[in-house]
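Work Package 4 report. The design task specified in the project plan requires that, given a folded chain encoded as structure tokens, an amino acid be chosen for each position. We show below one input record used in the internal validation round.
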């Protein structure tokens, strides 16, 4: 889902991406939450580095949200 949202690069879809991260977090066993999000983050960063403009900005926003989630913010 995140890949498709990044491909669109529409900032109005950021809440959907955040919700996808939240659903992943909530449905993953506690011991695997951080490591799982780190793997997801690697994929998001790979996509961010492969795109430009709005798609890049969207991917960075998703990455920032993942970082906040990992830090417990």
């Amino acid at each position: 889902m995140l890949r498709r949202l990044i491909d669109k690069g529409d900032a109005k879809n950021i809440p959907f991406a955040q919700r996808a991260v939240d659903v992943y977090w909530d449905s993953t066993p506690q011991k695997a939450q951080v490591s799982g999000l780190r793997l997801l983050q690697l994929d998001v960063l790979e996509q961010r580095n492969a795109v430009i403009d709005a798609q890049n900005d969207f991917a960075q926003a998703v990455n920032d949200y993942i970082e906040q989630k990992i830090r417990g913010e």
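Residues 30-50 form the longest helix (21 residues). Validation will be extended to a larger panel in the next phase.
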